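This part of the workshop introduces the protein records we will be handling. A record pairs a protein's sequence with a compact description of its fold. Comparing a sequence with its tokens is the quickest way to learn the format. The record below serves as our worked example for the rest of this section:
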Amino acid sequence: MNMFEGGDGRFLEMTNGGTAVFVDVLMLAVSELAREPWDFRFAALLTLQDQNVMGRGVVGFGLAELDWGDTPQERAAAKGFLLSVLDLALSRHRWEELTYEPPRAEGYLLAYRSMVADFDPGGPGDPATAQAGGSVLPGPHEAATASCVRHRVLDARPFWEACVFCTAGV
């Protein structure tokens, strides 16, 4: 099982298939909205949830593990971006391009959106982040800034030269 942790002991646990769908619909949305450096770093983190590369049942991250920024303004902008991504995904943005019907995606997105909305991102000194061993968010030099021409989503460079749809053979 793959787990995406929120705050206050809440988590979203999904099967391998559910996780693949979750990542697919989020990649469609994040690729549309990413504009700032943090956005592209979050997109890179999503590419690292690709089970076709990373392995089945071993992906996920906690909100407390993210580097949300150093100032209240940066943290608010990062959280606002993630909520916007979830809202766009919930609007079924580009879902008609999927080669399958994602029946449980809306439920996963609603559950995760609730967790993000309730989460209070702490600063660099946040005990939860320190306890988790630092940030899992890729650094600025690892941000997902290249696009897959075929699928029109951000790809996993510099980690590998493919997007989540290419690695799935779509």
